[in-house]
Amino acid sequence: SENDFALVGAPLVVYGVGAADLTLAGNTVSHSDPTGPGLVLQDVGNASVTDNTLTVTGTPGPAAIALAAIASTNPIALTATGNTFTGYNQALYFGDVNGGALGIDATLNDNVFDFVIDAAPKVAELENVKDEIDARNNVWGTNTDLATVESYVTLSGDTAVQGGSILLGPITQP
Description:
By secondary structure, the protein is mainly β. Helix content is about 5%, strand content about 45%. The protein is built from two helices and 18 strands. It has helices at about 145-150, 160, and strands spanning about 5-10, 10-15, 20-25, 30, 40, 45-50, 55, 65-70, 75-80, 85, 90-95, 105-110, 110-115, 125, 130-135, 140, 155, 165.
């Protein structure tokens, strides 16, 4: 918590186990020419990501996702509040490597995704997710219309079959 640091190309990745608790708070991260996500949380049992700022410098690659959460060996519980992600190409990625068997309990509110969001999956991709992700009250670039923001979500793998979804409304105006 409360660190200033720089990443070059590669993401900040945190791996965990079922009983792991992570608090990532108040950090300022400069991410130069990201080729992948800014922050990846994989198998972290319980994670709190609060009041961080991740800013891209240089040119983001096509896979430059602000925040990715992946469940491959155990379920994840994630709360993300008050974060600002600037300059990425996509806001969120949630993936359940085991086809939705594990679960992702995520609440992401009052965050700012400050970059161009103008096509799917620039708001989010949910891959093999069986859960309902709560992503209400966030700023999505310069978008002011909920229906437009919802159209920038991609459900891939067996997310639709399992009933996975993401709640986006209400959105916070830029």
